[in-house]
Design a protein that fits this description.
The complex is a heterodimer of chains A (about 400) and B (about 130). Chain A has about 400 residues and is mainly beta. Chain A starts with a helix and ends with a strand. Chain A has helices at about 5-25, 155-160, 190-200, 330-335; strands at about 35-45, 60-75, 80-90, 95-110, 115-125, 160-175, 175-185, 205-220, 225-240, 250-265, 270-285, 290-310, 310-320, 345-355, 360-370, 400-410. Chain A contains 4 helices and 16 strands. Chain B has 4 helices and 6 strands; from the N terminus they run E-E-H-E-H-H-E-H-E-E. Chain B has helices spanning about 25-30, 55-65, 70-80, 95-105; strands at about 10-15, 20-25, 45-50, 90, 105-110, 120-125. The chains are: A mainly beta (about 400), B alpha/beta (about 130).
């Protein structure tokens, strides 16, 4: 961890301790104020020289931690202010230290036993799939790492939340509950690995977010025994070329995910599956970068089994394809020199969760992966094409690899 | 499995100031999933619950809300950690539940039938 990020995280820990001690003393907050948070430390070990969240192939990496604190204030039942500050470290893909994950005002126009309608203004989490909105909070995830085919961590900030307005609605009917959310937002483009995946680590300049759209329709039957959702968005950005040796124009990018989600919850087990289709498009970058458009596809199917009180096991198959018309990446390799296996990933995961107390959780999981589609080139120079960055033997990256992870988490 | 004594029937109880005598199953579930935040007169609802694994909580969730405790937990966490909701107030025992509901304006909770007394109002679910 670099120094500013370490200082920021230390600051957050101090804030957290102060909050806890304030809560334990009879320091009176208004009863409409709530403060919650979490603290999490992970360990990741990978085979070969494939790195995920730090130098994980070299004796394992402890460079994966998440610290969050959130506050909400509800001065009246119709109005709520909420904010969450998170410090996150995930190898080179995230060392920006502390950032505001969300911060918004929420006003409900209509609220009765059958419906709830309202609007939010500020930085709001993106309603994509089942897990995106609370992806930082380890207790809400089905596993240590979310299924990377859909919830890849290399562009976490972009995916997590965006600045703008959102309209939401909820209709509770005799056949189930219907939830709607739609937002007009400016995306966050501050992920190091996302900037890097675009600029290839060699281009100057950066990407900025432009007016974008995101929304979800969700149906829940019997309080969530059956959950079905369609979510999607159109995220747009613009390249701001700085002075550099390569002459690029101020091109645009457009990223449009569409996610179908389904879940069945029984008392002891849950079955979840999501399918995503994403279109990515780059255009108007001038003569040195040709326009490019590709549609990727991902899906996973996941079973969780609560086999004893406090214990849960998970089994999942997760598949990612960056280009549905070039599933094995061979065309991409021929055209660009990037290894074919960087264009897909097939991941079998088994994991175990132990809730020692309602506040303390331990997790372990093992991934067997074919393909490197969700690794970050920022941490794996071997993913880059040889002519641009000559790879050395130690940069070599394996197509078949595995990952073992441990996680300890605390919440309040 | 550990053999368990038959559980007492859980009743929905509210502070005597609560402006209703009855709630629909839909309204009850919306309140305990922390999505319905006010009583019909607009005053705030304050929700009290026992720990997730308390037999009374499990019984209440399954019988009166027709959902599993893990679903409730997930709904609360989704609200709290995405900023779109708040968590219910946690009490450790039936006695603490009765005291909290009796002494908090707008409070709602649940109690085994034999714990109910005049300090709280029983809410019919219909």
């Amino acid at each position: 961890m670099d120094t500013p990020s370490r200082q920021a995280c230390t600051g957050l820990v101090v804030l957290l301790v102060l909050t806890l001690s304030a809560q334990s003393r009879a320091f009176e907050l208004p009863e409409s104020v709530q403060i919650h948070g979490f603290l999490s430390q992970g360990y990741i070990s990978t085979s070969g020289s494939n790195n995920f969240f730090g130098e994980s192939s070299d004796g394992g990496s402890w460079d994966y931690r998440e610290i969050g604190i959130n506050g909400s204030w509800r001065p009246t039942p119709k109005l709520q202010f909420s904010m969450q500050v998170v410090g996150r470290d995930a190898g080179k893909t995230d060392n920006d230290g502390v950032r505001i994950d969300y911060g918004f005002a929420d006003y409900s126009f209509i609220s009765d036993a059958d419906r709830l309608w309202g609007a939010r203004v500020g930085r709001i989490t993106n309603p994509l799939g089942f897990y995106n909105e609370t992806r930082d909070m380890p207790f809400t995830r089905p596993s240590i790492l979310l299924p990377q085919g859909i919830y890849f961590d290399i562009n976490r900030n972009l995916a997590l939340s965006a600045d703008g307005v959102q309209i939401y609605g909820e209709e509770r009917t005799s056949i189930g509950d219907f939830y709607f959310q739609a937002g007009a937002v400016q995306p966050r483009t501050d992920d190091p690995a996302f900037q890097d995946s675009f600029t290839g680590g060699i281009l100057p300049g950066k990407l900025d977010g432009r007016l974008s759209w995101v929304g979800r329709a969700l149906y829940e039957r019997d309080g969530g025994r059956i959950r079905l959702a369609v979510s999607g968005g159109v995220f747009r950005g613009k390249y701001d070329p700085k002075q550099g040796q390569i002459d690029l124009e101020d091109g645009r990018f457009r990223f449009a995910p569409l996610v179908f989600s389904a879940q069945y919850n029984a008392e002891k087990w849950s079955l979840t599956s999501e399918f995503a289709r994403r279109t990515g498009e780059f255009r108007d970058f001038g003569p040195f970068l040709s326009d490019d458009k590709a549609t990727g596809q991902s899906f996973y199917i996941q079973g969780t089994y609560r086999f004893a009180p406090k214990w849960e096991a998970v089994l999942r198959y997760d598949e990612l394809r960056w280009d549905k018309d070039d599933r094995n990446g061979k065309g991409w390799e021929a055209a660009t020199g990037f290894p074919a296996h960087t264009r897909y990933a097939k991941d079998w995961t088994v994991g175990l969760r132990w809730d020692i107390t309602p506040r303390i959780m331990l997790r372990a999981e093992y991934h067997r992966v074919k393909g490197t589609g969700w690794l970050a080139a920022l941490e794996n120079p071997g993913m880059r094409p040889t002519p641009i960055l000559p790879s050395t033997l130690e940069d070599d990256i394996d197509e078949d690899w595995n990952l073992f992870a441990l996680l300890a988490s605390f919440r309040f | 499995m550990v053999p368990r004594l038959p559980l007492a029937e859980e009743l929905v109880v509210a502070n005597p100031s609560a402006p209703v005598d009855a709630l629909s199953p839909t309204a009850l579930r919306a309140i305990f999933s922390m999505r319905l935040r006010s009583w019909p007169d607009g005053s705030p609802v304050r929700v009290f619950v026992l720990p997730d694994d308390a037999p009374g909580h499990v019984q209440f969730a399954k019988q009166l809300l027709s959902i599993f405790p893990h679903q409730l937990r997930r709904a609360w966490d989704r609200g709290v950690y995405s900023g779109t909701g708040q968590a219910p107030n946690l009490v450790k025992s039936d006695a603490a539940m009765r005291a909290a509901v009796a002494n908090t304006n707008g409070a709602i909770g649940y109690l085994p039938r034999e714990m109910v007394d005049a300090s709280v109002r029983v809410i019919e679910v219909e």
